[in-house]
Amino acid sequence: MRIDEIIASQRPTFSVEFFPPKTAEATEQLYATARELGHLELDFASVTYGAGGSTRDGTVEITTALKDDIGLETMAHLSCVGETTEGLAATLDRIAAAGIENIFALRGDPPRGEEDFVQPEGGLGSAAELAAFISAGWDFAIGGACFPEVHPEAPDLETDLSYLKTKVDSGAGFLITQLFFDNQVYFDFVRAARARGSRCRSWPG
User: Fold this and answer.
1) Which helix (H) or strand (E) holds 107?
2) Contact predicate 72/66, CB 8 Å
3) CATH number, position 87
4) Distance of CA 186 to the CA centre of its chain
5) Is the backbone of residue 127 left (phi > 0), alpha (psi -120 to 50) or beta?
6) Phi and psi (nearest 5°) for 51?
7) In the chain, where does DSSP find H-type helix?
């Protein structure tokens, strides 16, 4: 089921996030944990995507297994780091073929040891570009990240909110926050985003 439909039809919405493990033993532990968490009637589970696509294959495999074998609704993360548009398209085709309906579109953090994001040759430079790329060729529910305490690369909240609207206009249909420590900061952020026209639903991550 599409996450935009889930959050439109029920509240509150409860999800968990998994990182693709690197060993067979850790994979079995992840599945055991997912089965236990499934008793909490999760609305969906998301699976992260390592810097530079380091867990790309694992993301697709784990997302598919959580959906098909354990029965959770799932969302695959996808980032621009180290990827050409051809590589992104191939991954999106794999995700679609697996029956996954939800993508979390991210620019992504620089690989370990690098301070700044560098747009890959033949690739994309932002989460907004990735959302637009996905929207143009695939029928996924697209999620995006938002930053109640302001993205670390944004000079101020106004600039961050302006970019957030661009991300929404490019295809992001729902938003999940990065970590914040003061609930009032989140409530103020939501009001400010809506005042600037970012009407899609968001919730704390």
Assistant:
1) none
2) yes
3) 3.20.20.220
4) 19
5) alpha
6) -55, 135
7) 3-9, 24-38, 56-68, 85-97, 127-137, 157-169, 183-195
Question: What residue numbers bound the domain in which 150 lies?
Answer: 3-203
Phi, psi of 46 (to 5 degrees): -110, 155
The token pair at 61 is 């495999």
Catalytic residue among 17, 28, 115, 121: 17
Cis peptide before 111 (omega within 30 of 0): no
- Express each pLDDT in 45-98 by its tens digit: 999 976 555 566 788 999 999 999 999 999 999 999 989 999 999 999 999 999
Tally Cβ neighbours within 10 Å of residue 9: 9
Q: How many domains does the chain have?
A: 1
Q: Is residue 134's pLDDT more than 80?
A: yes
Helix, strand, coil % over all residues of the chain, rounded to 5: 45, 15, 40
41 is annotated as an active-site residue: no
